[in-house]
């Protein structure tokens, strides 16, 4: 949130909670705004990024409810309410949270709504081109909105799933989450293109900089903030980086596909998936099946008829060809895994540990087999 928005939010809280003490800090703990008589409350504010309710005691006497709310990009609001002034602190907390969500969701100007509508039209033309001539209109629309389409961008899809078991999930509106993405993206410049397709799929066409670590960190910060502060589950798929208007459709399709590819990798701490990490899966889905049937005919027949081969290959691929980790995943001794590997070498005529080409062929075989027989491999096994 900008300083002007923070100031308006601060004034709103003062009018809603007239006896409360309000403090807003940044991520370093520095005070941005605070009440005049701050000496009357405990000065223990630290940025956490979490919502919480605590009971604290003032140095001059008296008990306060300390309500904490994170604000994008990386600020935090603290609301100290005298315990004698309220009967139900949870109701006060819900009211305060609703006010914050209202500020996050409403556009600051009516012009912004018009711009957002034009931006959605631009995204629709980028992702669903009908004719080559339409690229000219798309380029003109982008120029009118101030977007430099020669910059390298990757389509990032945010898939949002509401927590249906939690009644408070209704508070987490798509517009509010979209505004959160806007706030974070603004820290890296004004050339990101942002919009929403329905209530469950939000779009960020992010300008990829020379330092990829910054782009990764930005997406991780947005991912963490949404999952912490909204009653939703968020996953992010990142597509190809493109610089040509005609290729945005490819980036969008690859960002959608990465969610399907990621089903075989359920052990990731953060559900942020990059197409660059799924080369083998992408090839399997893009190359016609008859090519794989030609090159892997004998191997497919052997693997289909041999369950032990299926689980062995699945564990090796899932564990990045680490024999010890694969053996542990299958609850077998390492020597047993070595024996199985030697059997695979003989039957498939592949040596994946000493030949890079054979290793890649085994990985492709695994993913094609997975695709063809549509198995569930959450345990690291092939079907």
Automatic annotation (TrEMBL):
Family the UniProt entry places it in: Belongs to the CdaR family.
InterPro entries tied to this protein: CdaR-like_regulators (IPR051448), CdaR_GGDEF (IPR041522), PucR_C-HTH_dom (IPR025736), PucR_C-HTH_sf (IPR042070)
PucR C-terminal helix-turn-helix domain sequence ranges: 311-361
Pfam families membership: GGDEF_2, HTH_30
CdaR GGDEF-like domain segment(s): 141-260
Originating organism: Enterocloster bolteae 90A9
Domain of life: Bacteria
Name recorded for this polypeptide: PucR C-terminal helix-turn-helix domain-containing protein
Organism phylogeny: Bacteria, Bacillati, Bacillota, Clostridia, Lachnospirales
């Amino acid at each position: 949130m900008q300083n002007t928005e923070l100031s308006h939010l601060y004034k709103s809280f003062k009018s809603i909670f007239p006896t409360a003490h309000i403090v807003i800090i940044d991520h370093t703990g520095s005070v941005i705004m605070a009440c005049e008589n701050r000496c009357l409350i405990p000065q223990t504010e630290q940025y956490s990024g979490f919502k919480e309710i605590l009971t604290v005691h003032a140095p001059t006497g008296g008990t306060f409810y300390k309500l904490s709310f994170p604000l994008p990009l990386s600020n935090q609001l603290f609301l100290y309410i005298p315990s004698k002034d309220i009967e139900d602190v949870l109701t006060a907390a819900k009211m305060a949270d609703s006010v914050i969500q209202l500020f996050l969701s409403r556009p600051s100007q009516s012009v912004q709504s018009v711009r957002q509508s034009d931006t959605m039209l631009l995204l629709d033309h980028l992702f669903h081109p009908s004719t080559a001539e339409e690229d000219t209109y798309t380029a003109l629309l982008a120029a009118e909105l101030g977007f430099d389409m020669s910059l390298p961008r990757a389509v990032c899809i945010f898939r949002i799933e509401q927590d249906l078991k939690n009644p408070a999930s209704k508070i987490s509106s798509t517009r509010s989450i979209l505004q959160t993405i806007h706030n974070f993206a603004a820290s890296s410049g004004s050339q990101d293109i942002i919009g929403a397709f329905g209530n469950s799929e939000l779009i960020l066409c992010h300008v990829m900089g020379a330092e990829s670590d910054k782009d990764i960190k930005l997406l991780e910060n947005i991912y963490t903030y949404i999952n912490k502060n909204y009653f939703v589950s968020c996953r992010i798929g990142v597509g190809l980086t493109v610089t040509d208007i005609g290729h945005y459709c490819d980036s969008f399709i690859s960002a959608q596909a990465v969610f399907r590819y990621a089903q075989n990798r359920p052990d990731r701490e953060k559900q942020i998936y990059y197409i660059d990490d799924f080369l083998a899966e992408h090839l399997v889905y893009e190359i016609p099946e008859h090519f794989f049937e030609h090159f892997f005919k004998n191997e497919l027949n052997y693997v289909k008829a041999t369950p032990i081969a299926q689980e062995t290959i699945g564990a090796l691929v899932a564990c990045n060809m680490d024999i010890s980790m694969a053996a542990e995943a299958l609850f077998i001794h390492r020597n047993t895994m070595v024996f199985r590997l030697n059997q695979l070498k003989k039957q498939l005529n592949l040596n994946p540990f000493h030949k890079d080409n054979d290793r890649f062929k085994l990985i492709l075989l695994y993913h094609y087999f997975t695709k063809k027989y549509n198995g569930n491999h959450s345990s690291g096994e092939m079907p």
